[in-house]
Design a protein that fits this description.
With 292 residues, this protein is of the alpha+beta class. The chain has 5 helices and 7 strands, in the order ααααβββββββα. It has one domain (24-287).
């Protein structure tokens, strides 16, 4: 007796055989996935880095806009910019009121030293503005304490603002051959003079970024050295904000400029006797102008 086609059903064995993948097919699929992942991961990583750089640029620009707003409310005067590292002198009149360290000092975590200082009100008391998203530098004791990061990555150009005793004579004793700008209107080329930058974690200590010019009159042959060092979080580049309100990344070319963002990695000061100095002089020339 013949069986109707409508009553026919495949056996369990034939169903399994028609749907299962062979080992070779599975290995091929896994290999394709691995290749695609290898192609996509660098792109995703680059995208994350670009996003961090954009956020860092935005932070420095927000600090510059706060600086301009401060000047508007204070007779065109720039904020106080006091060098506090190595001293006990502290005041909330300063644009920031902390000194970063590699130990467990409260200055590394107390956001009040930012939000209640000179520019705090002009950035909406937002502590996030003071930290580069790529800055995760911590010491071993800080990691052991469970910290996720310190609270500040940025510094202000030392040739801007009232630096207290250092600028009491109308000039900066660190760089007497260069102009100290006390007011925004004194800056002759605001698009060329930087106000804020992200600084290497080894030298970010206070908010005062200084590099001294070599002996006056001997620029080409005199020793130069990095006293404070720019950070290079963004593919060998640093975020700078300028006095005209714009912000931009600047890439470094000299090997002595770029050091890992780790405790004591920079080994400052860095003396540039036989080393290239292009980066050093670029910073110096964008800090101020020579006094004639």
């Amino acid at each position: 007796m013949e069986t109707s086609d409508s009553n026919w059903r495949p056996s369990p064995r034939s169903t399994l055989g028609s749907r299962a993948f062979t080992l070779i097919e599975l290995l091929v699929v896994m290999a394709i996935i691995a290749i695609l992942a290898g192609l996509l991961l660098p792109t995703l990583s680059q995208g994350r880095e670009r996003a961090r750089a954009i956020r860092c640029l935005n932070n420095t620009r927000q600090l510059e806009l706060a600086c301009a707003a401060y000047a508007t409310e204070n007779g065109d005067l720039l904020p106080y910019n006091l060098g506090m590292a190595g001293t006990s002198y502290r005041t909330n009149l300063n644009w920031v009121n902390n000194v970063m360290t590699w130990d467990l000092s409260d200055d590394n975590t107390n956001v009040v030293t930012l939000t209640e200082a000179g520019l705090g009100a002009f950035v909406g008391r937002n502590p996030g503005v003071y930290r580069c998203p790529a800055d995760r530098a911590l010491s071993a004791p800080q990691i052991a304490a469970g910290w996720s990061g310190r609270i500040r990555s940025y510094a202000m150009n030392a040739m801007l603002g009232d630096a207290g005793a250092i600028s009491a004579g109308g000039f900066n004793t660190n760089n007497p051959g260069y102009t100290q700008f006390f007011k925004t209107s004194q800056i002759p080329q605001p698009a060329e003079i930087f106000t804020f930058l992200d600084e290497h974690p080894d030298s970010v200590n206070d908010g005062y970024f200084i590099n001294k010019a070599p002996a006056y009159g001997g620029r080409k042959g005199s020793p130069a050295q990095w006293t404070d060092l720019p950070a290079s979080y963004h593919s060998r580049a640093t975020a700078f904000a300028y006095a005209d309100g714009h912000a931009a990344l600047h890439s470094w070319t000299d090997p002595d400029t770029v050091h890992p963002p780790q405790p004591f990695a920079a080994d400052l000061p860095i003396v540039l006797i036989d080393a290239p100095r292009l980066d050093f002089y670029w910073v110096l020339e964008h800090m101020s102008i020579e006094t004639y």
